[in-house]
């Protein structure tokens, strides 16, 4: 086995020349050498494969597939076929402007060197053949002459196209196989068959269409014979129609002329009747005018009488309104008199009541004893009231002070309660978060709060010892160090770290109970972990080198610095800080405890204040009760002293009001006389008004009588007028009807006269006669045998036209008939020519089919034998056959691969969906192996097809590949894989190409495998000594 290394080498080496010595076992077209410069991962690299199996092995990313890309692109392949990129410029090594791929192919007598220079900027390529400039077309012709097909999956299967082989249709697989292993003429015969069959279908369709057209033309010609006979019959009908159309205007003219004579006679009679009606209507018109004038005079008189009646009625209304006003005045006088009587009765009643009250008060005054001296008792009560007021004022002041103090305490209590609720809410949120994330820890916390008395020392929440109880909860707990570390000092002052952007140590940024802080300082050294800003992050490498810190924080990241114990190199690990989850809200425990103590003190103070307020309130109520009693006693003493004076004052007031009532007396008799005098005067005025009203009513009645008489006369005249107007209207209607009749007849006479002229002119024109020419005798003779009335002529004419219409479409002529006969003869000759051409194609198809199908069946049979043998050696079943849907459809022929990997299943066609990835890889590899011995292509490339196989199948396939490809008759084979199984079977005819890559690789011109082997053997002997 020979090894060739391809590595990341320097670019100063000179391009190699054509290989002078090549082993004769190479097949013509095989790859002798591959040279790459600035191509993908390579600076400069040269690969020299062997003539048989070439195993290209290397780790992923070292550049195995880059060699495959170089083969494809160097042999005029398209980038899209590789599947890596769509532009050739992307295959140039990054940072370089130009890349070179050179492939040397074996050929007698001299090898062929194909060079491709790729420009990265504009994605263009320059081609060379044997170091001479060439075109892409010339390169493709040279490659095709060597039967190299990099676009054929049966010959060239890149890594990204392995799965695409299983997706090939049966038709595509047949074409790829023909191109790959068939004789050169096989694929040509297949293409000729498809073209011949397409031409055959076109000729068959053409012959069928032309035959159909010929039949139609022959049928039309046969119909022409009958149409010629019908043509003459049609001519006779047309001549008769022409004669009928000539006679019709003369008959129509004669009919209209007779109508004109009749209308003229009727018009003269109507003219005479119109004259008589006009003479009869003149007296009636005069009498109507006289009646109209008299009717107007009566209407004028009636309107005058109506105006007079209206004026008198208005005056009567005014008199009636005056009488009603007088009645209202009398009623008002009577009402005023009644009110004065009621007022006098009320005054008498008030005088009586006043006398009675004075009498009662005098009686009470006489019964009263002489006023006693009550002043000493009043003074004593006043002194006691003053003392009570002083005491009440003191108590009220005390209550006010206590109430004010209580309100202040309650406000302070509310403030403390609100703050405690706020703290409790924060604690509840944290407990809910703890319960959601760590259920057992939350349950343990609840148990701890209920059982704190069972612990000897303080236990901080939520950190606790790992304990097991009857609840079977398991939680994490820690013990604080025996000596407190909460006040430990950092290793250096924070001021020394300000220059690096640090502003504080981690301990200073949060609060915690003393025990918790001691544990955090002891365990995590939070007192010695600095916290920096964006400035720290920007200069992190300098910070790590100069400060020698082991741990630090910035706003977004955490840094841990370690020193390797082996190399003494400083290693740093940075991680992004997660969003805060549990410490987003915190509670000050000292503040909470202090607030609870203040709340308890305030509650005690409030209880004491309530007791003092209750005592003062009781005393205040007692003093108020005593004050009310003293005031009631004082009131009774005052009333006893002032009652006599009050009674005397009331009696004097009543005497004054009594004198006023006596002075306000009303003289009812005098008032009654005045009222009667007023009513009498009003009645006199009413009598005068009644007399005037009676006179007006009499005048109104006489005027109404005169008006009724005039209305009756007016009605009689109106009836007479209406009768005359009705008679006049009837006579006018008759006159208008007579005028309309006359005008209609006169107009009709003129119309008929014009129509006669037009019809006569039309009849002469139809018969082609002059203005003064008489009707020719031939027309008179012909007209005698025809109908004489328009109805009969129209009926006869319609009948003949209907018969003539049955002959429509008879465009028959001798010329057209002869023309169609000639076309039929030409079409027959053309059809005979195409049928002969069709027979020639059928004969060609038969000959080419025999030359193509028999070798194809033999070839597929050979593939099937080898494919089945390969599968049988793996205890599986595989078949390859020619799939034919229709023997005449040569573009539907295909190769069908059927496989069975399990004994309990049936053969299934290889497709992208039924088999697993490994099964598809095995099937693809074995099919390519079946083609290998039959292959006429110079080399085959398969890239990482074994990746989906299990170890058993991979070993079996590898052994088949080695056995098959190592034979003398087979062509060159490239098998690319990143790994191989252990203890595989190898052959001396294999060439293994190891691909290495890395920063410490040797240059390619310094790589000497033999010297490496000698050195290894020498070192081995030294180790043994």
Backbone CA Rg: 70 Å
Compute the separation of the termini in Å. 29 Å
Strand content: 5-15%
Averaged pLDDT, please? Answer: 77
Q: Write down the overall geometry.
A: flat
For the sheet with most strands, the description reads: 6 strands, antiparallel
- What strand line-up does the widest sheet have? 2-1-4-5-6-7
Uncertain regions spanning at least 5 consecutive residues: 1-14, 463-473
Tally of helical segments: 19
The level of helicity is 55-70%
How many E strands?
A: 19
Structural class: alpha+beta
SSE inventory with pairings:
Layout (H helix, E strand, L loop, with lengths): L30 E9 L2 E6 L5 E5 L6 H11 L4 H4 L15 E8 L6 E8 L4 E6 L2 E3 L1 H10 L10 E2 L4 H5 L3 H12 L2 H184 L7 H63 L1 H12 L51 E4 L8 H11 L5 E3 L1 H5 L1 H8 L3 E3 L3 E7 L6 E7 L12 H75 L4 H99 L10 H8 L5 H16 L8 H60 L3 E7 L10 E7 L7 E2 L7 H16 L6 E5 L7 H15 L6 E6 L13 E4 L14 H16 L1
Parallel strand pairs: 3-18, 3-19, 8-17, 17-18
Antiparallel strand pairs: 1-2, 1-4, 4-5, 5-6, 6-7, 9-10, 11-12, 12-13, 14-15, 15-16
Helix pairs in contact: 6-12, 6-13, 6-15, 6-16, 7-8, 7-12, 16-17, 17-18
GO molecular function: ATP binding; single-stranded DNA binding
Pfam family, one: SMC_N
Keywords: ATP-binding, Chromosome, Coiled coil, Nucleotide-binding, Nucleus
